[in-house]
Design brief:
It is built from eleven helices and no strands. With 280 residues, the protein is mostly helical. Helix 4 (70-94) runs antiparallel to helix 5 (102-130). The chain crosses the membrane at residues 20-49, 69-90, 110-127, 147-171, 202-221, 241-264.
Amino acid sequence: MTAAGTARRAGADAAGSRPLRILITVGLVAYGLVHLLVGWLALQIAFGAGGSGEADQQGALATLAGQPFGAVLLWVTAVGLFALVVWQGLEAAIGHRNVDDEKKRLGRRVGSAGRAVVYAGLGWAAVKTVTGAGSSGGDQKQEGLTAQLLGMGFGRFLVGAVGIAVLVVAGRQIWKGARKKFTRDLAGGAAHWVVRLGQVGYIAKGAALAVVGGLFVWAAVTYDPAKAGGMDDALRTVHDAPFGAVLLAVLALGVIAFGGYCFVWARHPRVTADEGSADR
């Protein structure tokens, strides 16, 4: 067996191991819980009871930290999310070998790499929250970073590029939900109600990300870093629009639906890095 084949087999063995499978389940449950909390915080904003809490992932982690045994919950969340990083890292390196078309396989591996980055960022945020290093607002940090970028020579184009990249991701989330592409992430197929739950969740999440991307593009156009922001700013922007409270409530319920879908996903995650190990 070649060195590459040996590496693939080792990776497949790791992906198929029971400990990693358990941690993947924990991570997906944690990921779903974060989205449930984001949706709940957004509902509070929609009904005028948002307070000073941020309706984003950082705000969700802060809410989790305030619960009984919050520190333990956050550490479990962090460990689970970093397990998802390992999972998607293996998927990016040796997974999706069941896809015959090389371009499609490459596209899915790039998507897995992107997921790994998202999970790593959220896991690191959980660690910072439990250690007390993540108390400042995420949107304020983003506005500060945007201001620094706008101060650079090509900063305006960089901020605009970030916004466009977020819009592309948002469009992909909406497309994935509308075309039911997320069902290939589930082992053994999905019930009709699970498909509907995933559709609503992915489309709502994509719509929220689209507002985030739009804010970055608008910040680049107006040369105003205050126009940029994260998920909290995006949801509050929706709230301030005509019929915004209703729109935000619908969006929040969609994000909650995505959280619920993650719980189902946690029970039936498809690990293609294990499936595709033909040379085992």
